[in-house]
Every structure is written in C-alpha cells, then in structure tokens.
Amino acid sequence: MTGSKMTDSLDPGAFRRHAHEVADWIADYFEKVEGFPVRSQAQPGELLAALPSSPPEQPEPMKRILADFRQLIPPGMTHWQHPSFFAFFPANSSPPSVLAEMLTAGMAAQCMLWETSPAANELEARMMEWLRELLGLPHDWKGVIQDSASGATLCAMLAARERARGKTVVDRLAFYTSAEANSSVQKGARIAGFPLDCIRRVATDQRQAMRPGALAKAIEADRAAGLTPAGVVATLGTTGTGAMDPLAEIGAICQRENIYLHVDAAWAGSALMLPECQHLLNGIEHADSFVFNPHKWMFTNFDCSAHFLKNPESLQRSLSINPVYLQNTRDEQITEYRDFGISLGRRFRALKLWFVIRSFGAEGLREKIREHIAWAKELAQTIQNSEDFELVTGPNLALITWRYAPKNRAPKTLDDLNKRLLKAINDDGRLYLTPGAVNGRLVIRFSIGQTRTEARHVRQAWRIIQETASSLQHSS
Ligand code: PLP
Asked: What are the pLDDT digits (tens) for 37-85?
C-alpha cells in the first residue's frame, strides 16, 4: 500500500476530467433547474434508506460517486436557484459567483491573518469599500465579511455589551428589538449572555414597524428599575412582512440615551443600491453597525454577509486574544479581521463579491433588484383587484403577504383554508411559498428575488395559486 494512493485518490488527469464533468453538470443544472419541483418532494428518511450505514473501507471510483450524486442528491434538494422560488428570502447565486466559489475551493486558503492570504485580506477590504459606496453607507465606516447576519448581529451584541460594561454587570443589561425582529436577534442576545427576561420585544405599529414611542418608554422603565439599556437592533425589512423600522427616530433615541444601535438589513440592504430606496437610510448616522447579506438578494452564493461598523473598537476589545502563534507582522495599512468575528478561521468570501460586482456591474445589480420590486408591485395590484384574495401587507420592496379569503367562508376558517392552500401549492412543486403571521392571522408570503426569476414566472405563479385555490374550494 502506498500512502499517496490512499490519501490522494484522484491523480491530476482524473481530477481534470471530473472537474470538466462537474462544470458541465452545473451548467446543465442552471439550464434545467426549472424542470425540478421547487420544494423537494422527498419523504423523511428517503435518502437515509438509500445510503450504506457504514463508510467504505476501500476507495471508490469518482465515476460511481458522481453517478450516485446525480441519482440521489438533486431529487432530495429544495431548489433555491429555481426561478419560481418565492419562499423565505432568496439565498441566491449566479454564474460569476459559482465560478469564484470553484476557484476558492481550489485554493482552499484559510484567511485568518493577512499573512495567511494577503490577497484575500486586501480584496475583502476593497470589496467592503465598494459595497459601502454602493449602498450609500457613511464613508468612514469599516466593513468585514461575516458568515451570516446572525453572526454579525451577535457581534453587535458583544460590542454593545462591551460598551456598557464598566457601567454595570451583565445581568443588569437590557436589550431591545421589535416584536417582528428575526429570531437571530433573540438567539444572539442569549449567546451574548443578556438575561432572558431583559430582552425587550418592543411593540409595532399597523405596518409592523417598531414604535419609537414604545421603545423610549421601555428604556425609561428599565432605567427606573435600575437596569442599563445596552443596545437596540432595528430591522430594515423584517422577515415576516418586510417592515421598515424608522431609523431616524430610533437613532435619535439611541443617540440621546447613549445606547448601541445595530441595523439588521439582511434582506433589504441590497435595495439600498437604488437611489429611490436611499431614504430608508435616514438616521443611519446614529447607528453603530449595519449588516446586509449579499447572499440573499445580491446574487452571491451563501455564505456572505456584509457587516459595517462605525467604530470597531468595542468589538475588537470584546474579541481580541493575542497568543504568540498569531503575533505576525502587523502593518498600519492592514486590518486583521480575526478580531472582528467569532471564529479564528476565515473563508475567502471576497472573491465571489469581486466576480459578481464586476460581472453584473452596479447598473446590472440595480436593474435586477428594480425589476423584482416592480413585479411585486404588479402582483400586489392584481391581488388587490381580485375578489377572493386579500392583500394583507406590502409590497415592501419585493415582498408581499396575502391570503385566500373567498366571500362564502367564515373568517375563522380562513387560517385552516390557507394552510391547506399552501400545502397544496408546495406539494404541486411548480412554485414554493412559505407562511407568516400578521396580527395573529396566517398569511402567505410571496418574496421575489431569485436570480433567474422573470416576470412570466411571477404571472404563472399567480395562475397556479388561483387554480389551486379554486380546486380546493370545490373539493371541500
Ligand atoms: N435578519 C433578517 C431580517 C432575516 O430575514 C434573516 C434571514 O432570513 C436573518 C437576519 C438571518 O440571516 P442569516 O441566515 O444570514 O443569519
């Protein structure tokens, strides 16, 4: 037995052949993804039953591994790159982004320090400057790429905790977000050690946006009770309905009260590239940090989350540990990103941003996002004009929520009817939608933003929704 045979099962020639085969498969997938049901129709345990229960003792040929991949994996996947994916928010990709990911995987660099990958470090710095300019964020903010908005929000909480420390002990700190904030905010607050009973879910208005008055009152009450308000997370584009918390008013409160303000624009941030959406940033000068996900609505593969900080000092203070094995040459010009996030190891994520931004161009990115917003507006209008459907919220950018509400149905039966409608649509497989709740009522979200979506997919989706609703109505 030779060591190299066992550890390097593909010689360079075989790797090259299979790499071409894989590239062909990906190109075919792009062309044919529409042929798959959007949401996987797999049953629980189906793949498990097809897999051997123990690992192979002997090397297997790549030909067989790839054949098994083709047969077993795509049917067991939900196809996020399908143009009729209207569920959750998109987790997009695009051909330039995939090319960059292939190159990143090939180089397989670990980018924890400038010295371990100087080009990755400096490309990250420049890409964050490009994104800052594209979104119109304050020109002196510093950017870093995180794995996820959840990670960036956790970092914001650590920074807020660090800033408030010294004034009090952690178990006297309070944190504020809206009742509509993403679950990652609650999770981050728990991980950061904020006491569970001091995480305030501030009330929202009729547009599901945080009420600044309610925030001010909660802060006042907490101070009166001897707590120290440490941080606020405001959301631009909530997960449920795309609601926009009023940054200017929330920012003014945080400024006055000296409270850390983080803005979660995980999905909606991409729309800030449009001049007509820039007003949503009013008040950003009062914020301390901001996150948005190019991996959602900027055609860049998961994971890629752009996190901007007014002043990284409190985050760095909170996370910096400097063992001798990491003490490499430092340079004034260089930012060592290892002190900006949770993990020491860092993926080379800037390459896909470089490829995407250059390949689309800023105009190309804006054009796509603008189209998605226009189609959401058109669909909202159609739903509004329809007798049996109710537009519940929006459009907020490219997200609307709606429900089926035929005239002959008692209002209290509508939640159940819409649950059944959603299941029937997703079981059919031609489009994929997910639920939400507005004022305690079940709604169906329609979120447009997939890279390959065209107007015809949105119109076809509406026809399928109507047909499915009508057959449900006749069968019950
Ligand atoms: N914030 C908002 C508003 C979201 O909608 C989401 C996910 O959809 C997140 C945060 C979490 O994003 P991530 O998966 O990058 O942690």
From this structure: 999 999 999 999 999 999 999 999 999 999 999 999 999 999 999 999 9
Residue 35 confidence (pLDDT) above 80: yes
What type of residue is 449?
G
Q: Look up residue 184 and give its amino acid.
A: S
DSSP state of 85: B
CB 398 within 8 A of CB 448: yes
pLDDT for position 329: 65
> What are the DSSP calls for 267-301, one per residue?
TGGGGGGSGGGGGGGTTGGG-SEEEE-HHHHSS--
Pairing verdict, β 434-438 and 441-447 = antiparallel
**How much distance in Å is there from the Cα of 234 to the middle of ligand 1?**
13
Distance of alpha carbon 116 from alpha carbon 346, whole angstroms: 10
**Is the shortest distance between the CB of 264 and ligand 1 below 6 Å?**
yes
Dist CA 461 CA 337 (whole Å): 43
Indicate the pTM of the whole model: 0.95
- 103 residue type, one letter: L
Write out the two tokens for 117. 């990958």
Alpha-carbon span 440 to 179, nearest angstrom: 12
Looking at residue 318, its pLDDT comes to 84
CA 73, 468, 393, 438 torsion-angle sign: negative
Asked if pLDDT for residue 323 goes beyond 90, the answer is no
The CB of 114 under 6 Å from ligand 1? The reply is: no
Torsions phi, psi of 359, nearest 5?
Answer: -75, -40
Q: With a 6 A CB cut-off, is 146 part of the ligand 1 pocket? A: no
Q: Which residue has the tokens 């507005």?
A: 438
Identify the DSSP state of 197: G
Query: Tokens 């931004």 correspond to what residue?
Result: 357
Q: How far apart are CA 27 and CA 473, in angstroms?
A: 41
- pLDDT reported for residue 327: 78
Does the beta carbon of 418 lie inside 6 Å of ligand 1? no
| 469/421 Cα distance (integer angstroms) | 6
pLDDT digits (tens, 9 = 90+) for 398-429: 999 999 999 888 888 999 999 999 999 999 99
Rounded Cα distance between 165 and 260, Å, is 12
Pocket flag, ligand 1, residue 293 (CB < 6 Å): yes
pLDDT band at 1 (very low <50, low <70, confident <90, very high): very low
Q: Note the pLDDT of residue 137.
A: 98
